[in-house]
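Quick one: structure tokens for this chain, please?
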Amino acid sequence: MVKIAGSKKLKRQMAPLFWGIARKEKRFVVTVKPGTHKKNYSIPTAVLLRDKMKIVSTLREAKSVIYAGKVTIDGVKRKSLHHGIGLMDVVELDGISDSYRLVPKDGTILTPIKINTDEKNKKIVKVTGKTSMKGGKTQIKFHDGRTLISDELLDVNDSCVLQVPEQKILEVIKLEKNTKILITRGINAGKTGEIKEIKEGTFVLTKRIVTTIDDKLIEIPIRLVIAVGKDKPVMQIR
């Protein structure tokens, strides 16, 4: 039988800090397998349930819940301990009425927050790439690994409100002056601001935005923000 490449475990000392795991209890922890989100910016399903949400207390209990198909991510049941859950993903659990969205908060890049039930089938996704196709269509790539063929007029770094799991674009949020943004990484992760100016990149500096955070005017690389609304966030992000 063919063996799937890649290790299924990771030394705890090497795990990202935002996983919130105890470093010295055991030597290894389950890791993220290749999938939707980048490995360094996602958290395995088992670790999310046990260490972040504390819905289960052991890996054995996590396995029982996940293998039974009781975990739904963005409207799709996931039965892998190693499935990477990342920015703006919505988590539902059978037997629990609450739904959760993973967002940056208080300097931590991924924290589950409770959301309103009517928002569980929606998420904000950031456009990270696009390719022109025949017939005037465009293939759009989003930050969570999704791709979608559409005739919407979008630019890289714009955001969309997506209906999941159908992958239907409900609204487009342009990254432009006066748009509300959410900082996704760094010491200001989880803070929101309004775009005052967009500065084009140079040979030395990447493209960046100017915004106000805690009454201070700062510049931040555009890769570290996601547009979340025009006048206010279009959905719950804190």
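Helices lie at 45-52, 59-67.
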